[in-house]
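Exercise 7. Given the encoded structure of a 679-residue chain, write a plausible sequence.
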C-alpha cells in the first residue's frame, strides 16, 4: 500500500467509527452491526500499529464510544469505565490467558460471565445510600441519570449495610416485554438494548417507571475490595445487589471446590473447560430471558489486575468473547410495500437469494422510511443482511451504492390506491375496505397463536376470499366448505379437515378470541390484564367502552393512556361491533370461564407460584403457570416473601437463590407434575 492510500483509509475509518459510535451510544440507533463495527475497528488498530506516525490524535482507538448528551448533567467518574478487548474463538481466549498469566507472573483463576446486551451504568453509594447513577459516557465523564435509574425496582436505594462503594452494572429490558412495548412506540427501536438505552434518557422519570427495566451488577470498587472478584460479587449480593447467577470460574492451579459448594448455579473447571462453557452459552442464549451478545473473561485476583493495568481503551485483565450474528451479502432487486392488518405499510427488500444459518433469505424487512434514509438505501444497492436475534432477516448496512436515489415511499397504497398517511415513524393505509388489510386481519385471526384454525392457512383463506366465500371474520363460520367441492386442491378429505378445524376453534377461550380480533395494542398481555382486572366478558368490556371513560383502563397496571384510548376507539367502531356480534352468534366464547376445568382439583388455593429455568414439558415455561391458575393458585413474576412455591428447572437464575434464602419451597418439574396431578 502506498502512503497516500493508507492515510486516506485511516481517515475514512476514523470518520466512520466516530459516526457509528455516536449512533450507537447517543442515538441508541446503530446503523451497522456489532460485527461490522468490530471489523472496522480492528482494521484501524492494525493500521495504526503498522504505521504509528499516521494515527490521528482523535482516533476512535484512543477512546471508548461515548453516550454523553446535553440533556443530563455530566459527572466525572472516579473509576475507569472502559470498553473491552475482543476475541472470537477459544484459541484467541487461550492465547490471551497465557499472555495474561505471563504478565502477571503467576497462575491465575478466570471468571466467565454473560455479556448482557443492555445499557452500562455506574452506581455510586455513600454510607449505604445511592447518591448518583451515571452512564458510561466516554469512559471518564458520563451523564447523571439518577432520577431515572431510581425507578428500577432491582436497584437498591439503600444497601443492607452502610457501605461506601461504586458498582458497575448493565440495565436491560427482558425479551418478553420488548415486542409489546416497542409496538406502542411505532417500532422505533430495533432491539431491547436500544429500547432500554432510549428509555433511560427520557426526561420524565415517571415515563421510565412504566418500562420494566432490570439490572445485573458485575463489578464493585471499594477500599477493602482487595482479594478476588468472586468475593466482590459475594459482598455485593449480601448488600442487596442483583447478580446474574450464570457464571463460570476456571483455573489450572487454584482449588475451586469451596466456590462450587457455596454456589450451586456456578460452573467450575480447568482452563480448557472454558471452551465447553462457551459452547453451552452459545447454544442456550436464544432461550434466555434477556439478550446477551457474548461472554466476558476476567482475571479473578484483584492484586493481579492492579499489576496488569489498563490501556487507553480497555483493561488488560479482561476480554470479551463476542457472538457473531450470522450475516450474508446480497443485492436489492426491488423494494415493495406490504400492508398489514392495521394498515401499517412496511417496506420489504426483495433480494437475490443468500444463505444464512441454513436458511435461504429472499426478503428483508426495512422497517420504515427513516430506517431507509439512515441507510441511504436504493434499489440495486449491495447490502449486508443479518438474522437479528438469529431469526429475523434485516438489512444492517449498505456495502456498495448503485442506486441513483434513496428509495421513497409511494403516495398511494399498493393494494387499494388510497393515499398513504404518515403517522409517527410509519405510513398507514386508512381505508378500512383495503383488500390487504382485510386479508391481513383474516390471516391473523386464523393463524397460530390466535384462533389457530387448522387447515385454514393463508393460501386457503386467500382462495376463499377471491371466491367471495370469506370476506370478513364472521364468514369463516358461516360459509359452507362443501361449496369447494370440485375445486382443484379441495378433495373430500381436505374439505372435511377444514370443517373440523373451524369447529374446533370454537372451543378457544375468551382470552384467545379477544386477542384474535386484531385490535391494535390488544395483544396477549393486554387481554390477560383486562381479564385479571375484572373484564371477564365482552359485555363488561363493551359497557366500559360505551361509557367513554378510559380511566378504568388506565388504572390497570400495565395499560397506559395510549393503549386505553386505542381499545376504546376500536371497540366503538360499528364494523368491529358487527364482527363481535357475528362471532358471538357463531358460538365463540365471549366470556372467561374461570372454571374451564371444573373437575380439576383446586390444590393451589392460597399458594403464590413463580417459575424459573427451562423444562421438558412446558415450552414456553409460562404454560406451567397456567396450570397453577387453573387450580386456584396465584402467579408472580418475581420471588418475594409472599411467594410460596418456586418451580425451578435447568438454567435457573437469581430467583432460585433468592427462594433458597427466603426458605421458599422449591419444586422440580417431576414434583410439579405429581403435585398438580397432571397426566
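Solution.
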Amino acid at each position: 500500500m502506498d502512503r497516500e492510500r493508507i492515510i486516506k483509509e485511516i481517515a475514512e475509518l476514523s470518520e466512520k467509527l466516530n459516526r457509528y459510535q455516536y449512533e450507537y451510544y447517543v442515538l441508541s440507533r446503530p446503523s451497522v452491526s456489532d460485527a461490522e463495527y468490530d471489523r472496522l475497528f480492528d482494521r484501524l488498530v492494525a493500521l495504526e500499529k503498522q504505521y504509528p506516525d499516521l494515527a490521528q490524535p482523535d482516533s476512535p482507538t484512543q477512546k471508548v464510544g461515548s453516550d454523553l448528551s446535553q440533556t443530563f448533567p455530566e459527572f466525572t467518574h472516579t473509576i475507569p469505565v472502559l470498553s473491552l478487548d475482543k476475541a472470537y474463538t477459544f484459541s484467541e481466549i487461550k492465547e490471551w490467558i497465557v499472555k495474561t498469566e505471563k504478565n502477571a507472573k503467576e497462575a491465575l483463576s478466570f471468571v466467565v460471565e454473560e455479556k448482557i446486551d443492555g445499557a452500562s451504568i455506574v452506581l455510586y453509594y455513600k454510607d449505604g445510600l445511592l447518591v448518583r447513577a451515571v452512564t458510561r459516557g466516554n469512559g471518564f465523564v458520563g451523564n447523571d441519570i439518577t432520577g431515572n435509574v431510581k425507578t428500577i425496582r432491582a436497584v437498591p436505594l439503600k444497601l443492607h449495610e452502610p457501605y461506601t462503594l461504586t458498582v458497575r452494572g448493565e440495565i436491560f429490558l427482558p425479551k418478553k416485554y420488548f415486542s409489546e412495548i416497542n409496538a406502542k412506540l411505532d417500532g422505533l427501536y430495533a432491539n431491547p438494548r436500544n429500547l432500554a438505552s432510549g428509555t433511560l434518557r427520557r426526561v420524565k422519570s415517571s415515563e421510565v417507571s412504566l418500562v420494566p427495566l432490570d439490572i445485573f451488577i458485575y463489578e464493585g470498587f471499594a477500599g477493602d475490595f482487595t482479594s478476588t472478584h468472586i468475593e466482590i460479587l459475594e459482598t455485593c449480593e449480601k448488600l442487596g445487589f442483583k447478580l446474574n447467577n450464570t457464571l463460570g470460574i476456571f483455573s489450572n492451579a487454584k482449588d475451586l471446590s469451596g466456590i462450587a459448594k457455596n454456589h450451586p448455579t456456578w460452573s467450575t473447571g480447568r482452563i480448557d473447560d472454558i471452551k465447553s462453557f462457551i459452547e453451552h452459552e452459545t447454544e442456550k442464549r436464544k432461550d434466555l430471558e434477556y439478550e446477551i451478545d457474548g461472554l466476558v473473561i476476567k482475571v479473578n485476583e484483584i492484586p493481579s489486575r492492579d499489576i496488569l493495568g489498563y490501556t487507553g481503551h480497555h483493561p488488560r485483565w479482561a476480554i470479551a468473547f463476542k457472538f457473531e450474528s450470522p450475516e450474508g451479502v446480497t443485492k436489492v432487486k426491488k423494494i415493495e410495500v406490504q400492508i398489514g392488518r392495521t394498515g401499517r405499510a412496511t417496506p420489504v427488500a426483495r433480494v437475490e437469494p443468500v444463505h444464512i444459518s441454513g436458511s435461504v433469505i429472499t426478503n428483508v424487512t426495512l422497517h420504515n422510511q427513516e430506517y431507509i434514509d439512515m441507510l441511504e438505501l436504493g434499489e440495486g444497492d449491495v447490502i449486508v443482511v443479518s438474522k437479528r436475534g438469529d431469526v429475523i432477516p434485516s438489512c444492517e448496512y449498505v456495502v456498495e451504492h448503485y442506486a441513483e436515489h434513496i428509495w421513497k415511499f409511494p403516495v398511494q397504497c399498493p393494494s387499494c390506491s388510497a393515499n398513504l398517511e404518515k403517522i409517527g415513524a410509519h405510513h398507514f393505509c386508512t381505508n378500512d375496505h383495503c383488500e390487504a388489510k382485510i386479508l391481513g386481519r383474516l390471516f391473523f385471526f386464523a393463524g397460530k397463536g390466535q384462533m389457530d384454525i387448522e387447515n385454514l392457512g393463508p393460501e386457503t383463506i386467500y382462495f376463499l376470499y377471491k371466491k367471495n366465500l370469506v370476506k370478513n371474520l364472521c364468514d369463516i363460520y358461516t360459509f359452507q366448505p362443501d361449496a369447494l367441492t370440485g375445486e382443484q386442491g379441495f378433495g373430500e378429505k381436505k374439505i372435511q379437515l377444514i370443517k373440523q378445524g373451524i369447529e374446533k376453534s370454537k372451543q378457544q377461550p375468551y382470552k384467545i378470541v379477544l386477542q384474535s380480533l386484531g385490535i391494535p395494542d390488544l395483544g396477549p398481555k393486554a387481554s390477560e390484564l383486562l381479564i385479571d382486572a375484572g373484564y371477564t366478558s365482552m359485555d363488561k368490556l363493551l359497557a366500559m367502552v360505551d361509557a367513554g371513560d378510559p380511566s378504568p383502563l388506565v388504572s390497570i397496571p400495565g395499560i397506559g393512556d395510549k393503549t386505553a384510548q386505542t381499545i376504546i376507539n376500536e371497540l366503538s367502531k360499528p364494523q368491529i361491533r358487527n364482527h363481535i356480534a357475528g362471532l358471538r352468534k357463531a358460538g365463540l366464547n365471549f366470556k372467561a370461564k374461570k372454571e374451564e376445568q371444573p373437575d380439576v382439583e383446586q390444590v393451589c388455593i392460597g399458594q403464590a407460584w413463580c417459575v424459573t429455568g427451562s423444562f421438558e414439558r412446558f415450552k414456553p415455561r409460562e404454560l406451567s403457570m397456567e396450570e397453577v391458575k387453573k387450580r386456584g393458585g396465584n402467579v408472580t413474576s418475581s420471588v418475594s416473601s409472599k411467594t410460596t412455591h418456586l418451580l425451578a428447572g435447568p438454567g435457573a437464575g437469581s430467583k432460585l437463590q433468592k427462594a433458597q434464602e427466603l426458605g421458599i419451597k422449591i419444586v422440580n418439574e417431576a414434583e410439579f407434575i405429581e403435585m398438580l396431578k397432571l397426566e
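Remark. The mean pLDDT is 86. Students should compare their own answers with the one above.
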